[in-house]
């Protein structure tokens, strides 16, 4: 099924003959990971901010607000790429949270 774009060009979706899916090794998962999730907590009920080392940790996954670290020491795009010395959060776009991964160490590798 093709669709017409704004420039009246016909959009053709990509087609594949085959796809191969495999399991990632523990080493590969650690390579992709930005940090280890140590706590089961998600969001602090008082501050409504992600818990440090929890499932939504800003240090691991990135900031919840664009161009702002967790503690608020660095704000605005001028600090792009800076890692806060207080909270350890990199100042970047919040959309990186969709791309970054963390890992959980278990007693035995799975």
From TrEMBL:
Presence of the UniProt keyword Chloroplast in the record: no
Species annotation: Candidatus Eisenbergiella merdipullorum
Pfam (any one): RNA_pol_Rpb1_1
Cellular component terms (Gene Ontology): DNA-directed RNA polymerase complex
GO biological process: DNA-templated transcription
Gene Ontology MF term list: DNA binding; DNA-directed RNA polymerase activity
EC number(s) stated in the UniProt entry for this protein: 2.7.7.6
Keywords linked to the UniProt accession: DNA-directed RNA polymerase, Nucleotidyltransferase, Transcription, Transferase
Nucleotidyltransferase in keyword set: yes
Full protein name: DNA-directed RNA polymerase
Location of the RNA polymerase Rpb1 domain: 15-110
């Amino acid at each position: 099924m093709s669709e017409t774009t704004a420039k009246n060009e016909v959009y053709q979706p990509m087609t594949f003959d085959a796809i191969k899916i495999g399991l990632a090794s523990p080493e590969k998962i650690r390579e992709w990971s930005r940090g280890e999730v140590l706590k089961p907590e998600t969001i602090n009920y008082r501050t409504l901010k992600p818990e440090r080392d929890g499932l939504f940790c800003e240090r691991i996954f990135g900031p919840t607000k664009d161009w702002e670290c967790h503690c608020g020491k660095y704000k605005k795009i001028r600090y792009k790429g800076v890692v806060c010395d207080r909270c350890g959060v990199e100042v970047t776009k919040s959309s990186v949270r969709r791309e970054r991964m963390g890992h959980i160490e278990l007693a035995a590798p799975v």
